[in-house]
Specification:
single chain; 267 residues; mainly alpha; two-stranded antiparallel ribbon; 11 helices; 75% helix; globular
Length: 267
């Protein structure tokens, strides 16, 4: 169980702290994407496309398209931020910046590097989700959006847990792909298909796609946020996303450590 307890070691926190300090040096550029993207999405999908959609049937009632999209934006931000950090961010630190190499010359071991990357991706995803939440709050105050914004803080702990699982999935591909150009394979074959069948921006009702959605953690994350913000039966969706996240962490983190040990240390 050393792989699990390593998440609480000071070395893992030191890796996380290093990434946070580096990120804060360019906070003004890092702040723009999570702040501007949801505004553009609200304008394009909600006010633009939403003007052509009368309503979306959801749990026996119709909700506005903008209200349907808003929780999906939170889930999509969580997923893409954590996955891209696990894919590109970790790969660049491992291969080009040699950050891992420097860390491993200290008291930090590979399991701490792995957990540090997972925790950093989850921290960044939670930070970005908080910015998206502020944008949704502004839309609610402006009268554009009808959701329970008082429930938004309750979503952030779930963002962190789900992001840990998504980051662990991204790290698996970092351990497997030979070059950064090969990142297109998991991106277009795994990441984007998961996003398309997640129900974040449109319902997934086609019988051929429904089974894929039911095993997609992003789908259950989006549904949990909708139940939280729109008022719906949350127990099933919450249990599904927590169960899938726990399963992913239990399987993928030890696998990441094994694969990265072979790649980084040659063991």
């Amino acid at each position: 169980m050393r792989w699990l307890t390593a998440a609480l070691d000071w070395q893992s926190r030191a890796v996380l702290s290093r990434h946070v300090r580096v990120h804060l040096r360019l906070w003004y550029t890092a702040f723009l994407p999570p702040a501007v993207e949801p505004i553009l999405m609200l304008l394009a999908f909600g006010l633009g496309l939403g003007g052509w959609v009368a309503g979306i049937p959801w749990h026996g009632r119709d909700v506005s398209y903008l209200a349907y999209v808003a929780p999906g934006m939170l889930a999509y931000t969580t997923f893409m931020t954590a996955m891209l950090q696990g894919l590109y961010g970790a790969f660049i630190r491992m291969r080009y910046q040699r950050t891992w190499e420097g860390q491993l010359t200290t008291q930090i071991e590979l399991r701490h590097v792995v957990w540090g990357e997972v925790l950093w991706a989850a921290f960044l995803a939670t930070f970005y989700a908080a910015i998206v939440s502020l944008v949704l709050l502004g839309a609610r105050l402006a009268g554009w959006l009808d959701v329970d914004v008082a429930a938004l803080p309750l979503a952030l702990p779930l963002v962190f847990v789900a992001a840990c699982a998504f980051a662990a999935l991204g790290l698996m591909f970092t351990a497997l792909v030979p070059t950064i150009e090969h990142m297109n394979l998991p991106l277009f074959l795994i990441v984007l298909p998961l996003a398309f069948v997640s129900g974040t921006y449109f319902p997934v009702d086609h019988p051929a796609l429904r089974p894929f959605s039911l095993v997609n953690p992003l789908y259950h994350l989006a549904e949990t946020f909708r139940c939280l913000l729109l008022g719906g039966p949350i127990a099933g969706a919450l249990a599904s996303v927590l169960g899938l996240a726990t399963l992913m962490l239990a399987v993928l983190v030890p696998l990441d450590m094994r694969l990265l040990r072979r790649r980084v240390l040659g063991d």
